[in-house]
Protein backbone atom coordinates (compact mmCIF):
# COMPACT_ATOMS: atom_id res chain seq x y z
CA UNK A 1 0.00 0.00 0.00
CA UNK A 2 2.85 2.32 0.78
CA UNK A 3 4.33 1.56 -2.65
CA UNK A 4 1.04 2.49 -4.30
CA UNK A 5 0.93 5.82 -2.49
CA UNK A 6 4.50 6.59 -3.55
CA UNK A 7 3.64 5.73 -7.15
CA UNK A 8 0.56 8.01 -6.97
CA UNK A 9 2.66 10.92 -5.80
CA UNK A 10 5.25 10.29 -8.51
CA UNK A 11 2.58 10.15 -11.21
CA UNK A 12 0.88 13.29 -9.96
CA UNK A 13 4.18 15.15 -9.84
CA UNK A 14 4.97 13.97 -13.37
CA UNK A 15 1.60 15.19 -14.66
CA UNK A 16 1.80 18.53 -12.88
CA UNK A 17 5.37 19.01 -14.09
CA UNK A 18 4.25 18.82 -17.73
CA UNK A 19 3.37 22.50 -17.67
CA UNK A 20 7.03 23.48 -17.75
CA UNK A 21 7.79 20.85 -20.37
CA UNK A 22 5.01 22.11 -22.63
CA UNK A 23 6.24 25.66 -22.35
CA UNK A 24 9.74 24.44 -23.12
CA UNK A 25 8.54 22.70 -26.29
CA UNK A 26 6.01 25.29 -27.38
CA UNK A 27 8.40 26.47 -30.10
CA UNK A 28 8.97 24.63 -33.36
CA UNK A 29 12.12 22.55 -33.54
CA UNK A 30 12.59 23.22 -37.24
CA UNK A 31 10.80 24.94 -40.09
CA UNK A 32 10.00 21.60 -41.71
CA UNK A 33 8.35 20.33 -38.50
CA UNK A 34 6.38 23.48 -37.78
CA UNK A 35 3.02 21.78 -38.31
CA UNK A 36 3.61 19.37 -35.42
CA UNK A 37 6.16 21.39 -33.45
CA UNK A 38 4.22 24.59 -32.95
CA UNK A 39 1.50 24.90 -30.32
CA UNK A 40 -1.25 27.37 -31.02
CA UNK A 41 -3.33 28.95 -28.25
CA UNK A 42 -6.05 26.41 -29.02
CA UNK A 43 -3.53 23.59 -28.55
CA UNK A 44 -2.44 25.01 -25.20
CA UNK A 45 -6.06 25.21 -24.09
CA UNK A 46 -6.53 21.55 -25.05
CA UNK A 47 -3.43 20.58 -23.09
CA UNK A 48 -4.72 22.39 -20.03
CA UNK A 49 -7.96 20.41 -20.37
CA UNK A 50 -5.94 17.19 -20.60
CA UNK A 51 -4.04 18.08 -17.42
CA UNK A 52 -7.30 18.79 -15.57
CA UNK A 53 -8.70 15.42 -16.63
CA UNK A 54 -5.46 13.69 -15.57
CA UNK A 55 -5.76 15.26 -12.13
CA UNK A 56 -9.39 14.15 -11.95
CA UNK A 57 -8.59 10.57 -12.98
CA UNK A 58 -5.65 10.39 -10.61
CA UNK A 59 -7.72 11.92 -7.82
CA UNK A 60 -10.38 9.27 -8.32
CA UNK A 61 -7.70 6.57 -8.11
CA UNK A 62 -6.44 8.09 -4.86
CA UNK A 63 -10.02 8.21 -3.57
CA UNK A 64 -10.67 4.51 -4.13
CA UNK A 65 -7.28 3.75 -2.59
CA UNK A 66 -8.23 5.69 0.55
CA UNK A 67 -11.64 3.97 0.58
CA UNK A 68 -9.92 0.60 0.29
CA UNK A 69 -7.63 1.38 3.26
CA UNK A 70 -10.52 2.64 5.40
CA UNK A 71 -12.71 -0.32 4.48
CA UNK A 72 -9.95 -2.74 5.40
CA UNK A 73 -9.39 -0.99 8.72
CA UNK A 74 -13.12 -1.02 9.39
CA UNK A 75 -13.34 -4.72 8.56
CA UNK A 76 -10.47 -5.55 10.85
CA UNK A 77 -12.19 -3.55 13.61
CA UNK A 78 -15.36 -5.66 13.29
CA UNK A 79 -17.50 -3.04 11.52
CA UNK A 80 -19.58 -5.69 9.79
CA UNK A 81 -19.98 -7.44 6.43
CA UNK A 82 -20.48 -4.20 4.54
CA UNK A 83 -16.78 -3.36 4.93
CA UNK A 84 -15.85 -6.41 2.84
CA UNK A 85 -18.11 -5.29 0.01
CA UNK A 86 -16.66 -1.77 0.02
CA UNK A 87 -13.09 -3.07 0.18
CA UNK A 88 -13.73 -5.44 -2.75
CA UNK A 89 -15.25 -2.68 -4.86
CA UNK A 90 -12.41 -0.27 -4.02
CA UNK A 91 -9.75 -2.88 -4.72
CA UNK A 92 -11.22 -3.74 -8.14
CA UNK A 93 -11.54 -0.03 -8.86
CA UNK A 94 -7.82 0.46 -8.19
CA UNK A 95 -6.96 -2.47 -10.46
CA UNK A 96 -9.14 -1.08 -13.25
CA UNK A 97 -7.72 2.41 -12.84
CA UNK A 98 -4.13 1.15 -12.87
CA UNK A 99 -4.73 -1.05 -15.91
CA UNK A 100 -6.31 1.77 -17.88
CA UNK A 101 -3.60 4.19 -16.74
CA UNK A 102 -1.01 1.79 -18.10
CA UNK A 103 -2.87 1.39 -21.40
CA UNK A 104 -3.36 5.13 -21.92
CA UNK A 105 0.19 6.01 -20.89
CA UNK A 106 1.65 3.29 -23.13
CA UNK A 107 0.26 5.10 -26.16
CA UNK A 108 2.42 8.17 -25.61
CA UNK A 109 5.38 7.19 -23.40
CA UNK A 110 6.91 4.40 -21.33
CA UNK A 111 5.04 3.98 -18.02
CA UNK A 112 7.32 4.98 -15.10
CA UNK A 113 10.15 5.23 -17.66
CA UNK A 114 10.49 1.44 -17.77
CA UNK A 115 11.50 -0.13 -21.12
CA UNK A 116 8.42 -2.31 -21.28
CA UNK A 117 7.78 -3.85 -24.72
CA UNK A 118 4.95 -2.42 -26.83
CA UNK A 119 4.83 0.89 -24.95
CA UNK A 120 5.45 4.46 -26.18
CA UNK A 121 3.62 3.36 -29.33
CA UNK A 122 3.17 6.76 -30.99
CA UNK A 123 6.79 8.02 -30.74
CA UNK A 124 8.37 4.63 -31.55
CA UNK A 125 5.90 3.55 -34.24
CA UNK A 126 5.37 6.99 -35.77
CA UNK A 127 6.83 6.12 -39.18
CA UNK A 128 4.95 2.82 -39.36
CA UNK A 129 1.75 4.64 -38.43
CA UNK A 130 2.43 7.13 -41.21
CA UNK A 131 2.89 4.32 -43.73
CA UNK A 132 -0.27 2.60 -42.54
CA UNK A 133 -2.19 5.87 -42.67
CA UNK A 134 -0.98 6.50 -46.24
CA UNK A 135 -1.98 2.99 -47.31
CA UNK A 136 -5.35 3.35 -45.60
CA UNK A 137 -6.05 6.65 -47.36
CA UNK A 138 -4.89 5.26 -50.70
CA UNK A 139 -7.04 2.14 -50.48
CA UNK A 140 -10.17 3.65 -48.98
CA UNK A 141 -10.24 7.26 -50.21
CA UNK A 142 -8.17 7.38 -53.40
CA UNK A 143 -9.65 4.41 -55.25
CA UNK A 144 -11.37 5.23 -58.51
CA UNK A 145 -14.60 3.54 -57.41
CA UNK A 146 -14.84 5.65 -54.25
CA UNK A 147 -13.97 8.89 -56.05
CA UNK A 148 -16.38 8.26 -58.91
CA UNK A 149 -19.22 7.25 -56.59
CA UNK A 150 -18.69 10.22 -54.29
CA UNK A 151 -18.56 12.74 -57.13
CA UNK A 152 -21.60 11.14 -58.73
CA UNK A 153 -23.63 11.57 -55.56
CA UNK A 154 -22.51 15.20 -55.25
CA UNK A 155 -24.00 16.13 -58.64
CA UNK A 156 -21.43 18.74 -59.61
CA UNK A 157 -23.06 19.47 -62.97
CA UNK A 158 -26.41 20.39 -61.44
CA UNK A 159 -24.87 22.41 -58.61
CA UNK A 160 -22.50 24.25 -60.91
CA UNK A 161 -25.33 25.04 -63.30
CA UNK A 162 -27.53 26.38 -60.51
CA UNK A 163 -24.65 28.50 -59.25
CA UNK A 164 -23.80 29.89 -62.68
CA UNK A 165 -27.44 30.70 -63.42
CA UNK A 166 -27.34 33.54 -60.88
CA UNK A 167 -26.33 36.84 -62.54
CA UNK A 168 -24.02 37.87 -59.69
CA UNK A 169 -22.11 34.60 -59.99
CA UNK A 170 -21.86 34.95 -63.77
CA UNK A 171 -20.53 38.48 -63.24
CA UNK A 172 -17.94 37.18 -60.83
CA UNK A 173 -16.77 34.42 -63.18
CA UNK A 174 -16.65 36.90 -66.08
CA UNK A 175 -14.53 39.29 -64.04
CA UNK A 176 -12.17 36.49 -63.01
CA UNK A 177 -11.84 35.31 -66.60
CA UNK A 178 -11.13 38.87 -67.73
CA UNK A 179 -8.44 39.21 -65.07
CA UNK A 180 -6.89 35.90 -66.07
CA UNK A 181 -6.96 36.92 -69.74
CA UNK A 182 -5.27 40.24 -69.03
CA UNK A 183 -2.67 38.47 -66.91
CA UNK A 184 -1.95 35.93 -69.62
CA UNK A 185 -1.58 38.62 -72.26
CA UNK A 186 0.67 40.62 -69.97
CA UNK A 187 2.93 37.62 -69.39
CA UNK A 188 3.19 36.74 -73.08
CA UNK A 189 5.95 38.55 -74.90
CA UNK A 190 5.02 40.03 -78.28
CA UNK A 191 8.14 38.63 -79.89
CA UNK A 192 7.31 35.10 -78.74
CA UNK A 193 3.73 35.30 -79.98
CA UNK A 194 4.82 36.80 -83.28
CA UNK A 195 7.37 34.03 -83.72
CA UNK A 196 4.77 31.36 -82.95
CA UNK A 197 2.16 32.89 -85.26
CA UNK A 198 4.69 33.40 -88.05
CA UNK A 199 5.97 29.86 -87.71
CA UNK A 200 2.42 28.48 -87.68
CA UNK A 201 1.49 30.43 -90.82
CA UNK A 202 4.62 29.31 -92.64
CA UNK A 203 4.16 25.70 -91.58
CA UNK A 204 0.54 25.75 -92.64
CA UNK A 205 1.39 27.38 -95.94
CA UNK A 206 4.16 24.86 -96.65
CA UNK A 207 1.96 21.93 -95.74
CA UNK A 208 -0.88 22.87 -98.10
CA UNK A 209 -0.68 23.93 -101.74
CA UNK A 210 -2.73 27.06 -102.36
CA UNK A 211 -2.95 27.08 -106.16
CA UNK A 212 -5.78 24.49 -106.49
CA UNK A 213 -7.84 26.28 -103.86
CA UNK A 214 -7.34 29.64 -105.54
CA UNK A 215 -8.23 28.06 -108.87
CA UNK A 216 -11.50 26.61 -107.56
CA UNK A 217 -12.42 29.91 -105.94
CA UNK A 218 -11.63 31.87 -109.11
CA UNK A 219 -13.59 29.41 -111.23
CA UNK A 220 -16.67 29.82 -109.04
CA UNK A 221 -16.31 33.63 -109.04
CA UNK A 222 -16.18 33.74 -112.84
CA UNK A 223 -19.08 31.29 -113.18
CA UNK A 224 -21.23 33.41 -110.85
CA UNK A 225 -20.14 36.67 -112.51
CA UNK A 226 -18.69 37.95 -109.29
CA UNK A 227 -15.71 39.48 -111.13
CA UNK A 228 -17.84 41.79 -113.25
CA UNK A 229 -18.12 44.45 -110.58
CA UNK A 230 -14.37 44.53 -110.30
CA UNK A 231 -14.07 44.90 -114.09
CA UNK A 232 -16.65 47.69 -114.03
CA UNK A 233 -14.73 49.51 -111.34
CA UNK A 234 -11.46 49.15 -113.22
CA UNK A 235 -13.01 50.46 -116.42
CA UNK A 236 -14.51 53.47 -114.66
CA UNK A 237 -11.25 54.30 -112.93
CA UNK A 238 -9.29 53.85 -116.16
CA UNK A 239 -11.67 56.17 -118.09
CA UNK A 240 -11.47 58.81 -115.39
CA UNK A 241 -7.71 58.58 -115.31
CA UNK A 242 -7.43 58.98 -119.06
CA UNK A 243 -9.69 62.05 -118.97
CA UNK A 244 -7.63 63.66 -116.23
CA UNK A 245 -4.23 62.76 -117.65
CA UNK A 246 -4.59 63.61 -121.34
CA UNK A 247 -1.26 65.44 -121.52
CA UNK A 248 0.65 62.61 -119.89
CA UNK A 249 -0.69 60.10 -122.42
CA UNK A 250 0.22 62.44 -125.28
CA UNK A 251 3.72 62.94 -123.90
CA UNK A 252 4.21 59.20 -123.56
CA UNK A 253 3.18 58.58 -127.18
CA UNK A 254 5.18 61.44 -128.71
CA UNK A 255 8.20 60.67 -126.53
CA UNK A 256 8.42 57.20 -128.02
CA UNK A 257 8.27 58.39 -131.66
CA UNK A 258 11.43 58.26 -133.85
CA UNK A 259 13.49 61.41 -133.93
CA UNK A 260 13.28 61.85 -137.72
CA UNK A 261 9.44 62.23 -137.77
CA UNK A 262 8.01 65.76 -137.78
CA UNK A 263 6.59 67.06 -134.52
CA UNK A 264 3.12 67.73 -135.91
CA UNK A 265 2.98 64.14 -137.16
CA UNK A 266 3.89 62.87 -133.72
CA UNK A 267 1.18 65.10 -132.30
CA UNK A 268 -1.44 63.78 -134.68
CA UNK A 269 -0.45 60.20 -133.97
CA UNK A 270 -0.62 60.87 -130.21
CA UNK A 271 -4.08 62.40 -130.46
CA UNK A 272 -5.26 59.45 -132.53
CA UNK A 273 -3.88 56.92 -130.06
CA UNK A 274 -5.41 58.78 -127.14
CA UNK A 275 -8.86 58.98 -128.78
CA UNK A 276 -8.83 55.30 -129.69
CA UNK A 277 -7.72 54.34 -126.21
CA UNK A 278 -10.41 56.52 -124.62
CA UNK A 279 -13.05 55.10 -126.98
CA UNK A 280 -11.98 51.55 -126.19
CA UNK A 281 -12.16 52.07 -122.44
CA UNK A 282 -15.50 53.92 -122.74
CA UNK A 283 -17.04 51.12 -124.81
CA UNK A 284 -15.71 48.50 -122.48
CA UNK A 285 -17.19 50.45 -119.56
CA UNK A 286 -20.62 50.90 -121.18
CA UNK A 287 -21.02 47.58 -123.03
CA UNK A 288 -21.45 44.49 -120.87
CA UNK A 289 -21.07 42.32 -123.99
CA UNK A 290 -17.89 44.01 -125.16
CA UNK A 291 -15.44 41.56 -126.83
CA UNK A 292 -12.69 42.57 -124.42
CA UNK A 293 -14.87 41.57 -121.49
CA UNK A 294 -15.48 38.21 -123.10
CA UNK A 295 -11.76 37.79 -123.69
CA UNK A 296 -11.12 38.64 -120.02
CA UNK A 297 -13.70 36.04 -118.93
CA UNK A 298 -12.03 33.39 -121.08
CA UNK A 299 -8.63 34.35 -119.71
CA UNK A 300 -9.81 34.07 -116.10
CA UNK A 301 -11.49 30.74 -116.83
CA UNK A 302 -8.35 29.34 -118.41
CA UNK A 303 -6.23 30.69 -115.58
CA UNK A 304 -8.51 29.07 -113.00
CA UNK A 305 -8.16 25.76 -114.83
CA UNK A 306 -4.37 26.10 -115.01
CA UNK A 307 -4.20 26.79 -111.26
CA UNK A 308 -5.88 23.44 -110.66
CA UNK A 309 -4.27 21.25 -113.28
CA UNK A 310 -1.21 22.86 -114.89
CA UNK A 311 2.00 21.82 -113.11
CA UNK A 312 4.03 24.80 -114.26
CA UNK A 313 1.40 27.32 -113.13
CA UNK A 314 1.02 25.66 -109.75
CA UNK A 315 4.79 25.66 -109.24
CA UNK A 316 4.98 29.35 -110.07
CA UNK A 317 2.22 30.13 -107.55
CA UNK A 318 3.97 28.11 -104.84
CA UNK A 319 7.25 29.94 -105.47
CA UNK A 320 5.42 33.26 -105.33
CA UNK A 321 3.78 32.20 -102.04
CA UNK A 322 7.15 31.42 -100.45
CA UNK A 323 8.63 34.69 -101.68
CA UNK A 324 5.73 36.69 -100.27
CA UNK A 325 5.78 34.96 -96.88
CA UNK A 326 9.51 35.38 -96.62
CA UNK A 327 9.45 39.12 -97.08
CA UNK A 328 10.05 41.30 -94.05
CA UNK A 329 6.98 43.38 -94.82
CA UNK A 330 4.76 40.32 -94.30
CA UNK A 331 6.40 39.52 -90.96
CA UNK A 332 5.95 43.15 -89.92
CA UNK A 333 2.30 42.84 -90.89
CA UNK A 334 1.95 39.77 -88.62
CA UNK A 335 3.62 41.66 -85.78
CA UNK A 336 1.41 44.71 -86.17
CA UNK A 337 -1.68 42.52 -86.46
CA UNK A 338 -0.88 40.74 -83.17
CA UNK A 339 -0.22 44.02 -81.38
CA UNK A 340 -3.54 45.40 -82.58
CA UNK A 341 -5.39 42.23 -81.59
CA UNK A 342 -3.77 42.18 -78.13
CA UNK A 343 -4.65 45.81 -77.45
CA UNK A 344 -8.20 45.17 -78.60
CA UNK A 345 -8.57 42.13 -76.34
CA UNK A 346 -7.08 43.90 -73.31
CA UNK A 347 -9.35 46.89 -73.80
CA UNK A 348 -12.39 44.63 -74.16
CA UNK A 349 -11.41 42.65 -71.03
CA UNK A 350 -11.07 45.83 -68.96
CA UNK A 351 -14.37 47.34 -70.11
CA UNK A 352 -17.29 45.86 -68.18
CA UNK A 353 -19.71 46.90 -70.94
CA UNK A 354 -17.61 45.61 -73.83
CA UNK A 355 -19.14 43.21 -76.31
CA UNK A 356 -16.64 40.54 -75.29
CA UNK A 357 -17.56 40.56 -71.60
CA UNK A 358 -21.27 40.88 -72.31
CA UNK A 359 -21.15 37.88 -74.61
CA UNK A 360 -19.13 35.85 -72.09
CA UNK A 361 -21.59 36.74 -69.34
CA UNK A 362 -24.56 35.82 -71.50
CA UNK A 363 -22.91 32.53 -72.45
CA UNK A 364 -22.25 31.70 -68.80
CA UNK A 365 -25.86 32.44 -67.83
CA UNK A 366 -27.12 30.35 -70.73
CA UNK A 367 -24.77 27.52 -69.83
CA UNK A 368 -25.81 27.66 -66.18
CA UNK A 369 -29.51 27.56 -67.08
CA UNK A 370 -29.00 24.57 -69.35
CA UNK A 371 -26.79 22.74 -66.87
CA UNK A 372 -29.33 23.21 -64.08
CA UNK A 373 -32.24 21.84 -66.13
CA UNK A 374 -30.93 19.43 -68.77
CA UNK A 375 -29.90 16.00 -67.45
CA UNK A 376 -27.79 15.25 -70.54
CA UNK A 377 -25.54 18.25 -69.98
CA UNK A 378 -25.36 17.50 -66.25
CA UNK A 379 -24.31 13.93 -67.01
CA UNK A 380 -21.70 15.14 -69.47
CA UNK A 381 -20.20 17.61 -66.96
CA UNK A 382 -20.28 15.00 -64.21
CA UNK A 383 -18.52 12.57 -66.52
CA UNK A 384 -15.80 15.10 -67.30
CA UNK A 385 -15.24 15.89 -63.62
CA UNK A 386 -15.31 12.25 -62.57
CA UNK A 387 -12.93 11.27 -65.35
CA UNK A 388 -10.49 14.03 -64.44
CA UNK A 389 -10.62 13.16 -60.72
CA UNK A 390 -10.20 9.44 -61.40
CA UNK A 391 -7.23 10.16 -63.65
CA UNK A 392 -5.59 12.26 -60.93
CA UNK A 393 -6.09 9.74 -58.12
CA UNK A 394 -5.06 6.74 -60.21
CA UNK A 395 -2.04 8.47 -61.73
CA UNK A 396 -0.77 10.30 -58.67
CA UNK A 397 -2.05 8.09 -55.84
CA UNK A 398 1.46 7.00 -54.88
CA UNK A 399 2.63 10.61 -54.78
CA UNK A 400 -0.35 11.60 -52.61
CA UNK A 401 0.12 8.76 -50.15
CA UNK A 402 3.88 9.34 -50.06
CA UNK A 403 3.12 12.93 -49.10
CA UNK A 404 1.33 11.61 -46.02
CA UNK A 405 4.03 9.12 -45.08
CA UNK A 406 6.89 11.55 -45.74
CA UNK A 407 5.17 14.30 -43.77
CA UNK A 408 4.59 12.02 -40.79
CA UNK A 409 8.17 10.74 -41.03
CA UNK A 410 9.44 14.33 -40.87
CA UNK A 411 7.61 15.10 -37.64
CA UNK A 412 9.58 15.22 -34.40
CA UNK A 413 8.49 12.20 -32.29
CA UNK A 414 8.27 14.11 -29.00
CA UNK A 415 6.32 17.01 -30.45
CA UNK A 416 4.09 14.65 -32.40
CA UNK A 417 3.28 12.77 -29.22
CA UNK A 418 2.44 15.95 -27.31
CA UNK A 419 0.38 17.35 -30.18
CA UNK A 420 -1.71 14.19 -30.51
CA UNK A 421 -2.09 13.90 -26.75
CA UNK A 422 -3.35 17.48 -26.61
CA UNK A 423 -6.12 16.63 -29.06
CA UNK A 424 -7.28 13.21 -27.82
CA UNK A 425 -5.80 13.00 -24.30
CA UNK A 426 -8.89 14.39 -22.59
CA UNK A 427 -11.08 11.62 -23.97
CA UNK A 428 -8.47 9.02 -23.05
CA UNK A 429 -8.56 10.21 -19.43
CA UNK A 430 -12.25 9.34 -19.38
CA UNK A 431 -11.12 5.77 -20.05
CA UNK A 432 -9.21 5.86 -16.76
CA UNK A 433 -12.25 7.26 -14.95
CA UNK A 434 -14.53 4.68 -16.55
CA UNK A 435 -12.04 1.94 -15.70
CA UNK A 436 -12.13 2.96 -12.07
CA UNK A 437 -15.93 3.01 -11.94
CA UNK A 438 -16.47 -0.14 -13.99
CA UNK A 439 -13.74 -1.96 -12.07
CA UNK A 440 -15.37 -1.05 -8.77
CA UNK A 441 -18.76 -2.28 -9.93
CA UNK A 442 -17.26 -5.46 -11.36
CA UNK A 443 -15.37 -6.11 -8.12
CA UNK A 444 -18.51 -5.56 -6.11
CA UNK A 445 -20.48 -7.98 -8.30
CA UNK A 446 -17.75 -10.62 -8.18
CA UNK A 447 -17.40 -10.33 -4.39
CA UNK A 448 -21.18 -10.50 -3.96
CA UNK A 449 -21.50 -13.58 -6.15
CA UNK A 450 -18.57 -15.20 -4.38
CA UNK A 451 -20.15 -14.61 -0.96
CA UNK A 452 -23.48 -15.86 -2.19
CA UNK A 453 -22.02 -19.06 -3.59
CA UNK A 454 -19.84 -19.50 -0.51
CA UNK A 455 -22.86 -19.05 1.74
From TrEMBL:
<keyword id="KW-0472">Membrane</keyword>
<dbReference type="Pfam" id="PF04286">
    <property type="entry name" value="DUF445"/>
</dbReference>
<keyword id="KW-0812">Transmembrane</keyword>
<dbReference type="GO" id="GO:0005886">
    <property type="term" value="C:plasma membrane"/>
</dbReference>
<protein>
    <submittedName>
        <fullName>DUF445 domain-containing protein</fullName>
    </submittedName>
</protein>
<keyword id="KW-1133">Transmembrane helix</keyword>
<dbReference type="InterPro" id="IPR007383">
    <property type="entry name" value="DUF445"/>
</dbReference>
<feature type="transmembrane region" description="Helical">
    <location>
        <begin position="55"/>
        <end position="75"/>
    </location>
</feature>
<feature type="transmembrane region" description="Helical">
    <location>
        <begin position="81"/>
        <end position="108"/>
    </location>
</feature>
Amino acid sequence: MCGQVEWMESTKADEMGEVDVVEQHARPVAAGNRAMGYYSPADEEKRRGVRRMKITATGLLLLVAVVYVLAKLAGNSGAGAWAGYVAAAAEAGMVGALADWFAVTALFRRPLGLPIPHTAIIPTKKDQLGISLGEFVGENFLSKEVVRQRLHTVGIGSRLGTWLAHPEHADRVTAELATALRGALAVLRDSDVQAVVGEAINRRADAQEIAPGIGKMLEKIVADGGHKRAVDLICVRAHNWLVLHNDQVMDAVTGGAPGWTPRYVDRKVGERVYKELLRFVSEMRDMPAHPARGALDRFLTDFASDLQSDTDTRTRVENLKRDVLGRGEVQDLIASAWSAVRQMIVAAAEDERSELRLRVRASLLSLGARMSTEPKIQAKVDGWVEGAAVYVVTTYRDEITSLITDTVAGWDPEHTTRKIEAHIGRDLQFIRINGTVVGSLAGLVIYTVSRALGA
